[in-house]
Amino acid sequence: MREFVRLLLGRRARLRWVHLILGGALAMPYVFVGATAVGPLTGSQNVFGDFGLQLASFAVALPLAAVTSLFPLTRPLESSAVRWLCGVDAERLVYGPARARGAKARTAAWFTLHLGFGGVIAGMSLAVPPFAGVLIALPLFAWLRDSRLGLPEILDRSWALALSPVAGLACLVALAGCAAGAGALLAHLAPRLLGPAPEDRLAAAEARAADLAVRNRLARELHDSVGHALSAVTLQASAARRVLDSDPEFVREALAAIEDTTRRTVAELDTVLGVLRDGDAPGTGPAPTLAGDLDGLLRRVRASGLRVTATVTADPAALPPALSREAYRIVQEGLSNCLKHAAAPSRVTLHITATDDHLTITVENPLGTPTPCRPGGGHGLRGIADRTRLLGGTTEAGPTKHHTWRLQTHLPLKDPT
Q1: Average pLDDT for residues 300-313, to the nearest whole number?
Q2: DSSP-based three-state secondary structure for 135
Q3: Which residue ranges run through the membrane (predicted)?
């Protein structure tokens, strides 16, 4: 019984009833316009005094409502009302104007249903409670029976008079049931008529994919630039601490390398974070490239104690900008892995070569003692694989039969942008 009462008069049912009454209120101007057309056609001077003419005016009003639903604000306003009053999840509705033909047709269908059901339920809400109240009070007050009030003659009989309170309560329950049923039906239809169409879902999926791509790119940039810098600075500081008393010149070089590394990393970090600020321009400068900073990268890595032998037969200045930028990050991450995992003292070989159609990057170092991955770490090779895949290339990484670790990447020589 409690569940039945909740379905008819619970908070959600009451809010949906309010939504229907708002639909009835919206329908009234259209009904008045329909009455101005029905009156002259039927020759009636009092359209609202005849129930049949009222229905005819209502029938004329609904097509007019469907036409005016093409107004751009109709769908946003209706979606907001459905969300708050009908209890429909916000994700299942669209809050922008209807642009496509199908979306406009669905919006017109919804608006017509809202005003149609709303007009009926609003009319019932005005007429049924007074009638039910008279039926309930009829056995108690003789003057009600004497005044007649247009009641059916059957109520003059004693058994009908005794049952009239029951009939009055039944009318109220029927009204609540009609309102609850109409509200539930509209709530069920709302996602279909006001929800996203296939093209809307496709646009939302593309937007999410674009946002995810930007997030992944930012994550790669932060990992490669900041992660490499922290690894290099840690090793430089450790090496400087060990020879602080015996080799002041090395200490000065290490401190200078730390200063240069942190300054460049702060600039790169500002550039990456600039993308996150809505409306902000990029930071202090563009991302580094092979043409712009390969020598500086090798100098900073060597200052960390890593002996790097670099062979560069490709012309970095001739590479497309996007390819040069991503290749720089791949080299940076490869050398960073050597700093963290290679055997010490370690000699690393770097080869950057170009053929007619591919740029090949090879980083090789002796195998060292396996280093446990820190919590949340180990994303460097995955980042390299992601960059390579976006450029249409291939990458391989793993131990060789010569007890070395080799990272080799092949990138097509074309501008990915």
Answers
A1: 83
A2: helix
A3: 20-39, 51-73, 109-142, 162-187
Q: Please, where are the H alpha helices in 195-226?
A: 198-222
With tokens 């942190």, the residue in question is 262
Domain boundary among 153, 168, 196: 196
Sole residue written with tokens 């500081």:
237
Write 227-231 long-range contacts (CB < 8 A, 24+): 227/333, 227/336, 227/380, 228/332, 228/333, 228/335, 228/336, 228/339, 229/261, 229/262, 229/264, 229/265, 231/336, 231/339, 231/340
Same domain flag for 225 and 189: no
Distances (CA, A) of 119 to 19, 112, 149, 167, 304: 11, 10, 25, 24, 80
Count of structural domains within the chain = 2
pLDDT digits (tens, 9 = 90+) for 351-407: 999 987 889 999 998 876 544 444 444 567 887 888 888 788 899 988 888 788 899
pLDDT, tens digit (0-9, with 9 covering 90-100), for 239-275: 778 778 788 887 887 788 788 778 777 776 776 666 5
Q: Is the pLDDT of residue 288 over 90?
A: no
* Nearest to 411, CA basis, from 334, 327, 340: 327
Residue with tokens 């992660």: 227
Read off the CATH number of the domain in which 383 is found: 3.30.565.10
Please tell me the total number of residues recorded for the chain in this structure.
Answer: 417
Question: Average pLDDT of 59-63?
Answer: 93
Tell me the two tokens of residue 263. 């300054």
Q: Are residues 228 and 164 part of one domain?
A: no
Q: How distant, in Å, are the alpha carbons of 66, 97, 104 from that of 195? A: 18, 12, 12
Through-space distance between the first and last CA atoms of the chain, rounded to whole angstroms? 67
How far apart are the C-alpha atoms of 101 and 301, rounded to whole Å? 61
Measured CA to CA, the distance from residue 365 to residue 372 in angstroms comes to 18
DSSP track, 21-65: HHHHHHHHHHHHHHHHHHHHHHT-S-GGG-HHHHHHHHHHHHHHH
Range of the domain at 333: 216-412
**AA letter at 381:** L
Q: Which residue in 96, 106, 181, 171 sits closest to 136, CA to CA?
A: 171
Give Cβ neighbours of residue 94 (< 8 Å, ≥ 6 apart): 75, 79, 103, 194, 195, 196, 197, 200
**In the prediction, which pLDDT does 376 show?**
43
Q: State the pairing for strand pair 404-412/394-399.
A: antiparallel
Is 405 within 8 Å of 367 (Cβ atoms)? yes
CA dihedral 68, 108, 81, 117 (to 10 degrees): 100
Q: What does the mean pLDDT of the chain come to? A: 82
